[in-house]
Amino acid sequence: MGDVLACLRGWHPALAAAELSALLPNAELASTPAVRWLRVSRSTHEERRAALAVASGLQCFLDEGRVVSVSETDEEAWFASAIAYVEAHPVEGSFAVRGWSQGGKISGWSLSRLSRRLGGALHERGYTVDLEHPERVLALIGDGQAQHLAWGWMEGDGQAAFSNGERRAGERPFFKPVSLDPMLARLAVNVATGPVDAGPVVDPMTGTGGFLIEAALSNRPSLGIDLNSEMAHGAEANLVWACDGPVDHARVVRGDATRLADLLPEAWHGAVAGFVLDPPYGRNSHGNMESLSLLEACLRSARGVAAPTAGFVLILPVHPIQPHPETAVPLNTEFSLLHGDWEGVRTLIEATGWTLQSAHVERVHRSLSRLILHARCAPQD
C-alpha cells in the first residue's frame, strides 16, 4: 500500500485523472506541481496492475516516485538525489534507465544524457544493465510545461501509447463518420464502470459499437443495444472484427434503450456497473421521439437496472467551448448544446436518479466540441 506517482498521458490530463480515480476507487489521489502526475496512496500492486491493463489515459506508476522543480536544483544535485533514491529502493534483476518528455522539453536538460549517466553509475554499483529486455526500468520523466522532473522504478510500460490505431473507426468493417476515437471510448467505459471486476457495462444506443469494442477488449461483461437493425448488425460485425472472432462476454442485440429491463439477463438487474451513451442525434432511431424525451427515458430505464454504485458517462455535442484539458469544467457553466438546453439536460439527469459528478470538454473541430458528463447513481429512499 505504498505511495506511488501516477503518470498520465498528455492528451487530456483531467479525463485521465477521472479514469484513474474510477479504476482505483479505494485509493487517495493528491495533486503535484505537474497536472500529468498524481500522488496515489492506499492502492495495491494488483489494483494498479489491473488499472494499467485497461486504462487509456494512464502511462505508468513510479514506486515512491520523486518530483523536483528544475528551478530548485541542478544536474549534480539531481544526480545525487537519483542515486540516493536507488540506494533507498534497491531492486533485483537487470535494469535500464529510460527518459522521456511530456508537455515539451525542459530547456538545458538532456534526459537522454542524464539517463546514460545514471545508468552508468548504477552499473558501477553492481547493477546489471539490459537495454533490450530489462526486468526493471528506472524512469526519468521531464514535464516541460511544469518545468519539473520525476523519477522512480516503473510499473507499466511507460512510453507505449494506448494501442488503438489498428481499430480506429475508419478501419472497421462498418463505419460512420461520427464514430468516437477508441481512446475516448475506452476512457468513457472505465470512468463509467470502474474496475474490471465491478460488473457489466451497457451501451444503450451502441451505434457502430465503439464503446462495446473497448468494453469487450478490457474483458468486461458487456451488451450493446440499438433499435436500428443496420446499426445492430454493423456493431456486431465490428465487435467480431475487433476481437478476432465472437466472444462470450460481449454481444449486440436489437432493442429499445428505454426498456433495458426487457433486454438484460435477469442476473444483470440491479448489477450493471456502468452505462456509456453517445446519443445518435441526427438519425431517427426512435421514431418521432424528441431527443430530450428519449434521453430521459433511457436514463430512467438505466437507473432501474443499475447497481447501487453504478456510473454513467454521457457524451453530448456542444457548440465550441474553450478547451479545458487540465481541469474539469464547472457544472454551472452555460453549455450551448446542439440539441436541447443545458439546464433541461441537467434537470432530467437529476430527476431520473443520477447525480452529476463532473463535466469535461473535448474539441472535435472548430465548429464542434464534445461535452463528456460523468454521473453516478443517486441514493434512493
Question: Care to give the gist of this entry?
Answer:
By secondary structure, the chain is of the alpha/beta class. The chain contains nine helices and 14 strands.
What does this structure look like?
The structure is a single chain. The chain has 381 residues and is of the alpha/beta class. It has helices at residues 13-23, 45-54, 75-88, 111-124, 182-193, 210-217, 229-242, 291-305, 342-351; strands at residues 4-8, 28-31, 37-41, 58-69, 95-102, 136-143, 148-155, 201-203, 222-226, 250-254, 272-277, 306-318, 354-365, 368-377. It folds into two domains: 4-155, VC0802-like (2-Layer Sandwich), CATH 3.30.2130.30; 165-377, Rossmann fold (3-Layer(aba) Sandwich), CATH 3.40.50. The protein has nine helices and 14 strands. The strands form two sheets. It has a seven-stranded mixed β-sheet. Helix 3 crosses helix 4 (111-124) and helix 6 (210-217) runs parallel beside helix 7. The longest helix has 15 residues, at 291-305. The model is unreliable at 283-289 (pLDDT under 50).
Distance between the termini: 36 Å
| Average pLDDT metric | 92
The topology string of helices and strands comes to EHEEHEHEHEEHEHEHEEHEHEE
CATH evolutionary superfamily of the largest domain = Vaccinia Virus protein VP39
CATH C-level class of the largest domain: Alpha Beta
Proportion of strand residues:
25-35%
Overall number of structural domains = 2
Main β-sheet, spatial strand arrangement: 2-3-1-4-7-6-5
Unreliable segments of 5+ consecutive residues: 283-289
| Morphology | elongated
Helix coverage percent: 25-40%
Overall radius of gyration: 22 Å
Number of helices: 9
Number of strands: 14
Largest sheet: 7 strands, mixed
Q: What would CATH call the architecture of the largest domain?
A: 3-Layer(aba) Sandwich
Structural class by secondary-structure content: alpha/beta
User: Could you name the CATH topology of the largest domain?
Assistant: Rossmann fold
